[in-house]
Structure formats: C-alpha cells, structure tokens
Amino acid sequence: MSNKQTMSFQTEIKQLLHLMIHSLYSNKEIFLRELVSNASDAIDKFRFEQINKPELNKGDELAITISFDKDAKTITIKDNGIGMTYDEVIQNIGTIAKSGTKEFLDKLSGDAKKDANLIGQFGVGFYSAFIVADKVTLVTLKAGEVTSKATEWVSDGSGEFSIETTDKLDGNGTTITLHLKEDQDDLLSDWSLRSIIRKYSDHINYPIKMQKMPEHDKDGKEIISTEMETVNKANALWTRSKNDVTEEEYKEFYKHVSHDFNEPAKWIHSRVEGAQEYTMLLYMPAKAPFDLYDANRKYGIKLYIKRVFIMDDAEKLLPNYLRFIRGVIDSQDLPLNVSREILQSSKDIDAIRSGCTKKVLSMIEDIANNDKDKYSELWNEFGPVIKEGIIEDHTNKERVAKLCRFASTANDSDAKTVSLDDYIARMKDGQDKIYYITADSYNAAKNSPHLEIFKQKDIEVLLLTDRVDEWVVSHLFDYEKKSLVSVAKGGLDLGNLDDKKPTEEEKKEQEEKAKPILEKIKTALDGKVKEVVITNRLVDSPACLVTDGYGMSIHMERLLRQAGQAVPSSQPTLEINLEHRLINKLENSIDQNQINDLSLLIFEQAQLTEGIQLDDPVGFVKRMNSFIA
Ligand SMILES: Nc1ncnc2c1ncn2[C@@H]1O[C@H](COP(=O)(O)OP(=O)(O)OP(=O)(O)O)[C@@H](O)[C@H]1O
C-alpha cells in the first residue's frame, strides 16, 4: 500500500518561490552553491553525531557527489551526511521557520534587481533548485535509521509536494535530483558543472566528486571512465595560510557560512597561540540581515574543534553587540564533547571571546579610520547594535564609544557621521562638556527648544535619535575626561560659555522679581509640574520641560512606557523664558480663566515639543483656537 501524501507549501513559500525564480534567474548557477552548502552542513552534522555514536562511522569517505545525465536532463547532488526523517523533511523543506518572513515578503517591491538583493539577505537555500528545475526529487535517510525508513519528496515547485516512505540502499544522506527546465541544457556538461563548483564551492571542506572526464585514445575515440575524481580543494579554508587563499575564495566562503548573498565588507583571518590555541575567520557583513533586531533570531559563529564541526550559532563566542559578525572559530584545545551549557561558563571560552572581540573591534576600527564612506554605510546598518557595546562590554567601552557616529547640529543633515573625537576637536574655548539631546526623530531633536541657547552661542550638540541612545548615555558618563551632558536636563549650566551669566546676587534678584509669575503658573498647573523656574536656555520658545539632573529623562520615561514597563510618573519642571511675549501676557493678566488657560497651553506646547502625547488633545485645540480667535 502506498503511503504517498500530497501536501501544500506554506503560502509564504509559494510567494517566495515565485519571486525568487524571477529575480535570481540571471544568477541561476547559485543553485549548485546552495545545494552543495546544505550537503556540506549535513556532513558536518553527521561527523559531529559520530563523536557520541561511533557505531555510525562505517568507514565511508564523507563526500558530495555530483553527476548529470544528458538524456534524462537531470543533475544529481548526493551527500552521505546526517539525512532527514520524514517529519524533518516536512518541517525543513515545506515551511519557512524564520520569524519575520511575512514582513520580509511585504518589503519586496517587484523590481527584480532590488528584490534579488533582499532575497539574498533572507537566504533561499534549497528552493533555489527551482530556478533551473521544474521538478525536484529528494530522497533522504537519517543516519542510524534502517534503509526502509527513507523518505522521498517530489515537487514541481508550483505549490504542492508529494512525500512517501521509501527504501534507500546506499546508506544515510540525501540525494537530490533536479529535472532541468527546457532551456537549461548548458548546465549538462562536465565543463560547466566543474567551473561552477570551482567558482562557488572550492572551499567546501569535503571532497566534491565527479566522474572523471572522458579521455580520447589515439584515434580520437572517447573512453568513458567510471572513476571518480575530486574537483574542489577540499580542505578547511581557514586552516590554509592567508597567502594561499584568494579574495574570491574568502568571499565565497563567507556566503557559505553566512547564508548571505552579498559580499562581506571585511574579514580577519588569524591564528592565535597562547593559553588557548585557535583559528578565527570572522567576517563583517556589508548588509544587516533583515531580522537583526528580532529577539528570537539565532546568531553566532560556527564552532569547530580540531576541524570537526561542533555547532552553529555558538552565541557565546562573541558578545551580543557583535551578533552580526559571521564566520568560524576552530579551537585546538576545547574537548570535542563541549555543549552549549559548558560554553556558558567556560574560562577557555571567555578567553576566546575576549581575544575575538578585540580582533573584531580592530577590524571595525580599521574601516572607520581608513574608509570613511564605507564606514558610514556600515554604521547605518549596524550602528545601533554596535552602540549596545557601551552598555554590555565594560572592558571595551571606550573603544566602542570611539566607533560611534552621531547626527549633529554642526551638520545640516541627519547623516550620522560625527564621532566624539570630531566633537571634541571642535569644542569652543572654555567648553568642557559634550552636549547631546535624545529624541524620537532627527527633526524633533534638531528643532527642540532645548537647543535654542546652543544655537545662539554656536555650541555643537549631538542629536541622538536611536532607541538605544538613552541607555547608551546612561552608561557613558564621560569620554576622554569630558562629561556627556543632556541639554534637556534641569539646571543647565553653560559654565564659561555663558558670557551673560548673572552673578549669584543678580540671580537672586531675578528670582525674587519673577516670584509672582512663577507662583501664578505653578498654581494654574497644580499637580502637573514639580516646579516652575526661570531659564536662560530659551530664545524663541516660551517654556520647556526638564527633569532633574540625575533623574530619568522625559524621553527615557516615554521609551520605557512604550516598551510596556511600569514607570513611576514623575513630575517635570517647567522652565520659562521671561523674555517671551506669552509669558509677558501672563504676567500682565488678572483674568483667572485666562491665566489658567494660557498656563495650560504653554505647558501643553512644551509637552508637544518633547513628543509627549497630550492628556486632553481636544481641550488643547479648543484653548488654542480661542486664543487665535
Ligand atoms: N542535504 C541535506 N541534508 C540534510 N538536511 C538538509 C539538506 N538540505 C537541507 N536540509 C535541511 O533543510 C533545512 C532548510 O534548508 P534551506 O537550504 O532551505 O535553508 P538553510 O540552509 O537552513 O538556510 P538558508 O535559507 O539561509 O540557506 C536545512 O536547515 C537543513 O536542516
């Protein structure tokens, strides 16, 4: 009795397949790279499995075999790796488990070139077979299973697949047969397959075997050989000396380890000797993966021990803020039976992590110092993640701070290009602080009333608009002995920069004089503000809100609330500009209703410029209209 079942692809896969076939067509030969990459991963996993189950090792050479049949118009890719069970085939080859898939698909534009890039970031893997094939058969047997428990999966890529249990007599592993589309005959030759393998898969650790090319005898007759030969270099690329690896090989290896179609921005390849001996080959990608901020995203480095693959996504080998780095670490000293749990609390791993972190930071510094344009692009992709290092990595905090780039009032654009060193180099005579403002957007920051006095005095202010910035500045009190000061905090003191700074006596006098108006407003805003004080920071605006120097900033409070955290509601201080016409109007008014309305209006305006949602927007509009009328 046949146990054949027909199933439907997940909707997302149908969509993805359709788009992929169209947008990657001009790059069709990558199908082989993807399938060979999967085969190599499967052999890696099988070799790892043998560590604990030596009985799985039957002494066969671990290899990938590629063959073709001109008459049947097929190409076959065979590996003797880990294989898959029936359920695993359904899970791996019928669904996309990645979170964010839908959002990703929504981003696609229909423009083949742009989409090809995005699809590349997403990773197409197995499905790329359908770029060249109109039918794909996959037969697989999981290592350790009896030969009658193999699974056959067949699909034409249009939306359904069939799956059934079958026999596979040649042992564990996966055999994939591509039935090529009509116009793909050019792939059916020794020459073209060999050249694709050499181009994309030369670095694969395992031999990729093909039947020997036919030879010709002295009469020119073709002698077909049944012998196999290895067509790739077949050694672990990272174990080779740097001088023996070409730039192209490094780039192709990156695509294999990262599942990214784009070229890497830079890499470091280095052998470390000392207490821990290991080799690292780590890459800085050029583009952020689409799920960089997804909390469920798997990240990390491939860990090998003495060239045996141990695990993917070993997240302990680098700190979280370098989670976009891809590559391989191959240790000489760790025990082969190392597990994720052991990695958690291993001194040896700590040593490797700290060594690799330093090297990666040097690599990023190198780009920052020597290629400003490239760094600017990378900062746009990864900046908010790198900044987390200031919070996470106490040891390298200064180095990470040096790498940060911000928008600034010194430029007329939202480009994040100003470093703290640039800022310090431009500081005014007598300036000893680094001033910044945090806000939700560049425009909100740039136009904030808190900046008025700084604009007037031509003092540069850094405009911090990434969500993580509030946390960053709460961990970075100073840089190069200059303290970082928010211009939105209470008690702003411009120190030597304030040429019109009143003496203590003048200040007292001013405060005494302002007492009635301050009282008036305070009473009108009872319960809404902690205090009402005069300020010299405003030029064009009547008032602004500030929090205590050591308290949480208003922006931070809002971010925490947005993140669903309970934040004790603190009352801000309202700072007022005595020179402003609205304040003068208040001073002169004796109509209590008008005093109440105008005070509230000034308070609400200050809230709006902070990006705060008003309690009573309708009331605000009414008050506003009545004043305009
Ligand atoms: N030759 C194979 N042997 C064993 N398992 C395989 C093989 N090919 C694919 N798989 C399984 O199917 C899964 C999906 O493969 P696919 O190529 O679609 O994606 P991927 O390699 O995980 O990632 P990406 O989509 O980024 O390339 C793999 O993760 C693996 O578990």
UniProtKB/TrEMBL annotation:
Question: Entry's SUPFAM superfamilies?
Answer: ATPase domain of HSP90 chaperone/DNA topoisomerase II/histidine kinase, HSP90 C-terminal domain, Ribosomal protein S5 domain 2-like
Q: Which residues bind ATP?
A: 34, 38, 79, 84, 92, 98-100, 121-126, 174, 340
| Ranges where the record places region C | 559-629
| Region spans: A | 1-340
Stretches assigned to coiled coil: none
- Per UniProt, which keywords does this protein have? ATP-binding, Chaperone, Cytoplasm, Nucleotide-binding, Stress response
Q: What is its main location?
A: cytoplasm
Q: Which GO terms describe its molecular function?
A: ATP binding; ATP hydrolysis activity; ATP-dependent protein folding chaperone; unfolded protein binding
Q: Identify the Pfam families for this entry.
A: HATPase_c_3 (PF13589), HSP90 (PF00183)
Q: Where is the Histidine kinase/HSP90-like ATPase domain?
A: 27-184
Cellular location(s) = Cytoplasm
**GO CC term (a single one):** cytoplasm
CDD domains documented for this protein = HATPase_Hsp90-like (cd16927)
Which family, according to the similarity comment?
Answer: Belongs to the heat shock protein 90 family.
How does this protein assemble?
A: Homodimer.
- Name the job this protein performs: Molecular chaperone. Has ATPase activity.
Tell me the protein's name: Chaperone protein HtpG
Q: Which species is listed as the source?
A: Aquella oligotrophica
